[in-house]
């Protein structure tokens, strides 16, 4: 049985990695290029609000949605883990996780979703909710959203401080951790389906 601090760390860290706020800074900077300062801030506020709504919707109603569709959490975890594994490998080999298209509603799509809260984050939320108390997952998600909000607002300063090379290095490290999380999700999904019976230390 995990204590509160252990549970918080074990929920906060995976969400921080899959949301990958630092790795998304170049996308935010590129999509907000040429915007006046107030429009850039408005775009970021809208993107964060979108990400929060999508994440909370799946955290509270994701299990119900899966039940209605006849999909088990285990199956969803395996599917999400495979997608996450493919995306993380693609990022490590090509430097890009997905194609970003500039549209009128870039705050909602792609920044809010799927860049900030996409399939990987949704899968992580659903899987973590089966392993830890819901309120701890909720606290970890909200804190990650607030941190992401702050990082996006400071994206220009962070880029100047770290440089493009530094951001790429951090993103590559995160992508490696993302690969490990993807494998863990697949294993956990197989466990939930009863295909594997791994023994974890208490």
Could you please describe the fold and organization of this structure?
The chain has 8 helices and no strands. It has 202 residues and is mostly helical. Helix 1 runs antiparallel to helix 6 (119-131), helix 2 crosses helix 8 and helix 3 crosses helix 5 (107-116). The longest helix has 38 residues, at 155-192. It is globular and about 50 Å long. It starts with a helix and ends in a 10-residue tail after the last helix.
Salient structural properties:
202 residues; mainly alpha; 81% helix; 0% strand; globular
* Proportion in β-strands: under 5%
Quantity of strands, as a count: 0
Distance between the termini: 7 Å
Major β-sheet, in short? none
Q: Given the C-alpha coordinates, what overall shape results?
A: globular
How would you classify the helix and strand content by structural class? Answer: mainly alpha
Whole-number radius of gyration? 17 Å
Mean pLDDT, to the nearest integer, reads 81
Q: Please give the count of helices.
A: 8
Sequence of secondary-structure elements: HHHHHHHH
Low-confidence stretches: 100-104
Helix content: over 70%
Give a topology summary.
Layout: H1 4-19, H2 21-31, H3 37-69, H4 73-94, H5 107-116, H6 119-131, H7 134-153, H8 155-192
Helix pairs in contact: 1-6, 1-7, 2-7, 2-8, 3-5, 3-6, 3-7, 4-6, 4-8, 6-8
Short account of what is shown:
With 202 residues, this protein is an all-alpha fold. Helices cover 81% and strands 0% of the residues.
């Amino acid at each position: 049985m995990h204590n509160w601090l252990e549970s918080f760390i074990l929920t906060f860290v995976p969400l921080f990695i899959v949301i990958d706020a630092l790795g998304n800074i170049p996308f935010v900077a590129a999509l907000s290029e040429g915007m006046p300062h107030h429009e850039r801030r408005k775009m970021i506020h809208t993107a964060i609000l979108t990400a929060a709504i999508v994440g909370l919707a799946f955290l509270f109603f994701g299990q119900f949605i899966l039940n209605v569709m006849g999909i088990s959490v285990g199956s969803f975890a395996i599917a999400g883990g495979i997608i996450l594994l493919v995306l993380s490998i693609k990022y490590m080999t090509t430097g890009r996780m997905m194609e970003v298209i500039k549209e009128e509603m870039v705050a909602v799509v792609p920044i809010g979703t799927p860049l900030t809260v996409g399939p990987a984050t949704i899968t992580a939320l659903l899987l973590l909710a089966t392993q830890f108390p819901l309120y701890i997952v909720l606290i970890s998600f909200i804190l990650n959203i607030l941190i992401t909000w702050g990082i996006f607002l400071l994206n220009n300063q962070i880029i100047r401080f770290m440089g493009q090379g530094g951001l790429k290095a951090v993103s590559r490290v995160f992508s490696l951790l993302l690969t490990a999380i993807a494998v863990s999700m697949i294993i956990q999904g197989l466990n939930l389906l009863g295909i594997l019976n791994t023994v974890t230390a208490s």
